[in-house]
Amino acid sequence: MAKVTYSAFVSTVRGKIRGDVGSAWKGRNYIRNLNPSPRQPRTEKQQNVRGYMASLAGEWYALTASYKELWNKYGSLMPKPITGLNAYIMLNSNLWKYLGTAAKIDYPPATPSVPGAIVGLCCASLTSTSSQCSWDAPLESCVWAILDFSPMAGYDEGNHPRWSFAAGVSASVTVTVHTHTYPIGTIINYQMRTMDQSGRVTPNSVIKQVTVAA
């Protein structure tokens, strides 16, 4: 929306001017574009997410009626009920992102329950180019521990940390290493969550800070 400055010869603008329209709101005149171009983020991560969703939406329509019925029931049992299509995309996009396309599932788990959350997370600088994170629980081999990181200097436009995937290992390993190229003195935030073989994830753990040491 653009501000308009009027003169003694022009005091107001009303109606269409090519692709723009003049109007007023609460006594203030303005001109706006009738057909603003939609914002299409072009980062690699955002394009990947759109790719996951488009592919999964297409696969959903190829499922049998019985499988769709199960997904719809599963979605209705969520704390905030969602459609079966959204439930299918939500779980499978998690599996696709962290484990690859071979991990995708055609039918939902029996319940919306999630695996045990990370307990006892501890992170420290291991070398000048790596950090080590360990945890006490859970210890199941069929549950994945997912580590995300955010360097303090990396903030998005909304002043929120921009998290990136660091590592994913079986929770039974209880330790993982993140290799990086940040200079000494950089503060890195780490958080973890778990994901089971159905793509169900827990909320993120508390954030742990590590200062890159020599």
Provide an overview of this structure.
This protein is of the alpha+beta class. It has 3 domains: 2-33, no CATH class; 44-103, no CATH class; 122-211, Immunoglobulin-like. It has helices spanning 44-60, 65-76, 84-99, and strands at residues 2-3, 15-17, 20-25, 28-33, 122-127, 130-134, 144-151, 164-170, 175-179, 187-195, 208-211. The strands form 3 sheets. A 4-stranded antiparallel β-sheet has the order 1-4-3-2, with no helix packed on it. Strand 5 and strand 6 (130-134) form a beta hairpin. Helix 1 crosses helix 3 (84-99) and helix 2 (65-76) packs across helix 3 (84-99). The longest helix is centred in the N-terminal third of the chain and has 17 residues, at 44-60. The protein is flat. The model has no long low-confidence stretch (mean pLDDT 85).
For the record, the CATH class of the largest domain is Mainly Beta
Strands of the widest sheet, in order across it, are 1-4-3-2
Alpha plus pi helix count: 3
Number of domains: 3
Strand share of the residues?
Answer: 25-35%
Task: Just name the CATH architecture of the largest domain.
Answer: Sandwich
CATH topology of the largest domain: Immunoglobulin-like
Basic shape: flat
> Can you give the helix content as a percent range?
10-25%
Separation of termini?
A: 50 Å
Q: Would you tell me the overall average pLDDT? A: 85
Low-confidence stretches: none
Write the CATH homologous superfamily of the largest domain.
Immunoglobulins
**Major beta-sheet overview:** 4 strands, antiparallel
DSSP E strands, number: 11
Structural class: alpha+beta
Kindly provide the radius of gyration, computed on alpha-carbon positions and rounded to a whole number of angstroms.
Answer: 24 Å
SSE string: EEEEHHHEEEEEEE
